[in-house]
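Question (not urgent): is this output format expected?
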Amino acid sequence: MSRIGRMPIAVPAGVTVSINKNSVVVKGPKGELSRDFPPEIEVVQENGELNVKRNSDHRIHRSKHGLVRSLVNNMVVGVSEGYKRELHIEGVGYRAGMQGNNLELNVGYSHPVLFEPPEGISFEVDKTGRELVVHGYDKELVGEIAARIRRTRPPEPYKGKGIRYLGEHVRRKAGKAGKSA
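Got this back:
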């Protein structure tokens, strides 16, 4: 049996879970998430916990067991605590700022790049304009938005300029060796 799939999911106070046949809806203080799951995987609520069960030991059912448990756990954690992804901007003249709710990036292009946050996502920029945080309650969406922001100017290996995740190590290259006589 899946070690991840058989672990119970604790439902914190203030979070309500409603389960229909193949769909789970989780509501909490941060927001509401819903997701449909395959019919061979069943989510059961008992004693303030959620348990994920499967119909058989077929290979495909086993592979989906842990996945469904992780997705439901991410939903519960997201609506109760939320998720954040931190980014760091490196480079001379590179900075981020807020323009209302939108994120404005000046990263070496002839124009600023604007990011409009989708529903459930908010941006936070420190006063230096070098650190930026993406907040939200949907883990998948927070990661996707952070990846899109990073994709506007990924870190390059020679000078290290660009947008990187906080704590990400960028492997540096030496560059040209110069002419020797």
